[in-house]
Specification:
This protein is α/β, with parallel strands linked by helices. It has a single domain (2-203), classed as Metallo-beta-lactamase, Chain A (4-Layer Sandwich), CATH 3.60.15.10. It has helices spanning 35-44, 59-62, 65-72, 89-95, 167-178, 197-203, and strands at residues 2-8, 13-19, 25-29, 48-53, 76-79, 108-110, 115-118, 121-127, 136-140, 145-149, 152-153, 156-157, 186-189, 195-196. The protein has a six-stranded mixed beta sheet, covered by helices on one side. It has a six-stranded mixed beta sheet with strand order 7-8-9-10-13-14. It is globular and about 40 Å long. The termini are far apart.
Amino acid sequence: MIFDAVVVGPLSVNCFILGCEETREGVVVDPGGDVERIIQTVRRHGLTVRYIINTHGHFDHVGGNREAVATFKAPLLIHREDAHLLGLVAEVGRMYGIQGENSPEADGFLTDGMEIEFGTHRMKVLHTPGHTQGGCCLYLAEENKIITGDTLFADSIGRSDLPGGSHDQLLASIQAKLFTLPDDVAAYPGHGPETSIGHEKRHNPYF
């Protein structure tokens, strides 16, 4: 499987580009900005984007949605609980001194346990509220990988002091949905370096 990442936007979001080497179908996860670089990566792999997916609705993860949707002509997916945030990108960005563009509305909604297929691959949606109410992780069981968005970071967790956040809910989501996965699953957060489920179970200071 093609599994690539581009660090984008003013807050250094990890945008993931996944693809099937046989069919060249792919998905783009969290196009937060610098969409031209995302486009270049997609084209370098020769992919046709089947879905654009947001792990959650914060402006730094969805800021490039409009350009990505216009370019790839692919449906946009996010959890229903975060769909309202897509129309707040410009407003929230201004609060951080960052110019942003509101996202188009979602074409479909992520649900817990939903499986998303691209080519010969599939990934399972794990709803992990706490950072936001609609936060989700994307589990690629056959590849032993999980994209954790802003739910779980290397030796840290997502912040929960923003509207819709809950520290207790976030901890419960991680323990129930992520720490029940095999220890050797590689975890790819929305910011910063990769880690593993086993490392976080043993060393994450929040647990």
